[in-house]
Amino acid sequence: MKAEIVTIGDELLIGQTVDTNSAFMGSELSAIGFNVIQITSISDKREMILRTLGEKLGKADVVLITGGLGPTSDDITKQTLCEFFETKLVMNAEVLAIIEKMMAKRNYPVNENNRRQAEVPESCKVIPNTAGTAPGMWFEKEGTIFISMPGVPHEMKHIMNEHVIPELKKRFTSQHIIHKNIMTYGTFEAKLAEILTDFEAGLPDNIKLAYLPSAGVIKLRLTGSGSNREEVAKSIQYQVDKLYQIIPGLIFSENEETLEMVVGRLLVKNGKTLCCAESCTGGEISHLITSVPGSSGYFMGSVVSYSNESKTSILDVPKETIIRYGAVSRETVEKMAEGARKRFKTDFAIATSGIAGPDGGTPEKPVGTVWISISSDKKTISEKFTYGNDRVINIRRFSYAALNLLRQQIIS
Amino acid sequence: MKAEIVTIGDELLIGQTVDTNSAFMGSELSAIGFNVIQITSISDKREMILRTLGEKLGKADVVLITGGLGPTSDDITKQTLCEFFETKLVMNAEVLAIIEKMMAKRNYPVNENNRRQAEVPESCKVIPNTAGTAPGMWFEKEGTIFISMPGVPHEMKHIMNEHVIPELKKRFTSQHIIHKNIMTYGTFEAKLAEILTDFEAGLPDNIKLAYLPSAGVIKLRLTGSGSNREEVAKSIQYQVDKLYQIIPGLIFSENEETLEMVVGRLLVKNGKTLCCAESCTGGEISHLITSVPGSSGYFMGSVVSYSNESKTSILDVPKETIIRYGAVSRETVEKMAEGARKRFKTDFAIATSGIAGPDGGTPEKPVGTVWISISSDKKTISEKFTYGNDRVINIRRFSYAALNLLRQQIIS
User: Fold this and answer.
1) From B45, which residue of chain A is nearest by alpha-carbon distance?
2) Using one digit for the tens of pLDDT, what is the confidence trace for A19-64?
3) Could you read off the pLDDT of A299-320 as tens digits, one per residue?
4) pLDDT score at B239
């Protein structure tokens, strides 16, 4: 089962856009047992597209293609696919209906460019794209399946998850492949790999372990394969149980949830509410929490107290505390958490105060320093963390550290 | 001047690592006039490496290669390069000295793995890597230059900036390529393409236009090429001026800035301050604003008023307004903006109230509806927008709409 990935777009070659689509597609294809042979990025040029697709023809089982399906004249993938598959563009009524509905909702008239997006190669099977205007297209030629999708990441992901992966699974997998994603937080990759050396060495041949780190969260992906589904599931579960014995404090989910989803689930389960007082995280924690559907049930709101005055006037942090200990201190951050909890009348409050960078660091409190506090009706705790120099990465890391601290307080 | 990029590593194909190196190399190569023909990612397999390099031989002027130079047994690029260039590994004293020095600094003994890293193919020109242990290697064969670098991004960047780019510049200097990125907001891609049909048709042969849309922001990229740098620059500027005449209201930057950067720049320039009252955007606007270094100079803070009670208790929105008009209404959002401006004592305030979804929609106020208000000492304005069904995308679109509305108010 060989797969290839082809991403089309000048913006990829001149480095204006980082190709994140390929990693997503590679991961999804691997997950259902495909061997991804090559990722090829080429420009929006007819000859390059024809040559590249020609090279894969009859060699790969599946070729996933993204990009070049927009409504503008630099998007030439569709016409070139017609040439490659010796077919012509025809108007597709269903796609047109989706586009018309989308435009109507936004109160825009359907123009010639939109209408062109509803044209599809006659010989392809159309894959609906309810997340955007350009549909996916499924072709087969000389034993190779070619699937063309839009390059907009969320549209591509939607088409992959809803249609491409389920369909490929049906067509190709006699083998049963089961993934289990164990979400961990609290250490770094090299350290976790060291802790899990023996565990990894003891894995049976049909189970693989991968480390997928992102801003402090490390996803451990166990992939098992075999002809008997139940046996694979049992074998994976045995390894998961082992992980819980080795790193009980680090695992926060075995269902690929984010920290903000887990925190939300725990708050709902315990009938508790939450608010935040964010200084250095600038709204990112609130944003993460409210990205979860249903969060209005437990999240009451936040104060982003970027100025010291707002820490005093809205969160009731005594001026003297800030003057005496500084804004980035245990004393201030605990007062912020307590003030927010009173303001929003919640069971829990998160507060953060730190130095995201690039400026504002001192020898005692370098860039990357953050104080985080969790206040509840039982107690107020706080902890200091130190990260790196990159502002955006620091903000994300501070936020995850805060969510994990809250998680620990809820379950403690 | 044709260039190709080859990145080597299983982690790229299974999607464990996003290939950010290629975008960096592509951008650097384009900047000095290279036409990047293809980016190819392949696994750490001898046959794949040999085949891929063979395909580029005598066709590209330059092939940049990253990855597979680490000290572990799955890193086989160096041996395979020896095979491809028909040479053998020899110990390089200078590289060994760098490695020994680096290990001494970290208080590690030099082991067999480290020593192996000091071995290089006899026929290559060694490129020093003072940022890591694996050196870069420069080969030439049949008119093609092959440059192999480590896959660790900061090591590769170091070698690129210090050695590869200056050297390539010296060797190849004929064509000049200039990119100009015009950032627009306020319409969608198909509509913009319609407006720019004549403009695009009138572009000279040496200037290309590309559309790069993302959550409501559309980047227009003009790429010009020619043998005379000044003429290309002049020719591009002429087209930029034309764009300003055709779509004056849509352009918010010609320097590839984000909306939050532009808003920050305008606030600084005008000596004004800002705060937010966010309901449906849940902290995302504050997060975007505070992602910009230096934002603490003009951003005082926000209230994320997720609960109606906090709209009343912290932002002083009259209870009756919410009861009579609903939380998602012109009346409520304007009171939120005015309340926030008073609370934080700022010149401007942004307020949002809407339905991000997936639940909470009604026939009159469907999911995707948002009211946005901007309040200043001169006036309070508000506008309603309607977007789609995806919660996370709605939050992002609401936030950009708010930032753009603020931008218009600052410059009006």
Assistant:
1) A37
2) 999 999 999 998 888 999 999 999 999 999 999 999 999 999 999 9
3) 999 999 999 999 999 999 999 9
4) 97
Instruction: Determine the pLDDT at residue A211.
Output: 77
Closest-CA distance, A112 to chain B, in angstroms, reads 8
Q: Is A50 exposed, middle or buried (0-12, 13-18, 19+ CB in 10 A)?
A: middle
CB atoms B302 and A299 under 8 Å: no
Contact yes or no for A359 and B39 at CB 8 A: no
Asked whether the predicted pLDDT for residue B17 surpasses 90, the reply is no
Q: Do A106 and B391 touch (CB under 8 A)?
A: no
Under an 8 A CB cutoff, do A13 and B26 touch? yes
Q: Is the pLDDT of residue B296 over 80?
A: yes
Residues B25 and B159 in one domain: yes
pLDDT at A201: 92
Query: Last residue of some domain: A150, A172, A194?
Result: A172
Structure confidence by residue, pLDDT tens digits, A187-220:
877 788 889 989 999 999 999 887 777 778 988 9
* Residue in A with minimal Cα distance to B282: A287
CATH number of the structural domain spanning residue B222: 3.30.70.2860
**Residues A90, A125 within the same domain:** yes
Contact call for B391 and A314, based on CB within 8 A: no
d(CA A34, CA A39): 13
Least confident segment among A16-20, B161-165, B257-261:
A16-20
Residue B246, amino acid? I
Split into its structural domains, chain A has a count of 3
Quick check: B282 and B306 in contact, CB under 8 A? Answer: yes
DSSP states along A232-301: HHHHHHHHHHHHHHH-TTTEEESS---HHHHHHHHHHHHT--EEEEESTTTTHHHHHHHTSTTGGGTEEE
Cα-atom radius of gyration of chain B, to the nearest Å? Answer: 27
Q: Say yes or no for a CB contact (<8 Å) between A102 and B283.
A: no
Residue among B2, B6, B16 with most chain A CBs within 10 A, to mutate: B16
Contacts of B26 in chain A (CB under 8 A): 12-15
CATH number of the domain within which A140 lies: 3.40.980.10
Q: Does one domain contain both A7 and A144? A: yes
B205 and B325, same domain (yes or no): no
Chain B residues lying within 8 Å of A303, measured CB to CB: 301-304, 314
- Domain match, B300 and B395 both: yes
Residue at A206: amino acid letter: N
Structure confidence by residue, pLDDT tens digits, A128-181? 888 888 899 999 999 999 999 999 998 999 999 999 999 999 998 777 888 899
First-to-last CA distance in chain A? 47
Picking from B48, B209, B392, the nearest residue to A291 by CB comes out as: B392
Peptide bond into A293 cis (omega under 30): no
Q: What is the pLDDT of residues B26-68, one digit of tens each?
A: 988 988 889 999 999 999 889 999 999 999 999 999 999 999 8
CB pair distance less than 8 Å for A301 and B304: yes
B87 and B29 in one domain? yes
Are the C-beta atoms of residues B199 and B246 closer than 8 Å to each other?
yes
A86 pLDDT above the threshold of 90: yes
pLDDT number for residue A112: 83
Considering the domain architecture, whether residues A265 and A353 belong to the same structural domain is answered as yes
* Cβ-Cβ contacts under 8 Å for B39 (sequence gap 6 or more): A12, A13, A19, A39, A40, A41, B4, B5, B6, B7, B19, B22, B26
- Per-residue pLDDT band for A116 (boundaries 50, 70, 90) equals confident
**Which domain does A305 fall in, by range?**
259-411
Distance from C-alpha of A23 to C-alpha of A3, rounded to nearest angstrom: 13
Q: Nearest residue of B to residue A394 by CA position?
A: B291
Mark which of A253, A269, A299 sits at the end of a domain.
Answer: A253
Same-domain pairing of A242 and A273: no
Closest chain B residue to A306 measured between Cα atoms? B301
The answer to whether the peptide bond before residue A213 is cis (omega within 30 degrees of 0) is no
Q: Residue B24: closest CA among chain A residues belongs to which residue?
A: A15
In this structure, what CATH number is given to the domain that contains residue A387?
3.90.950.20
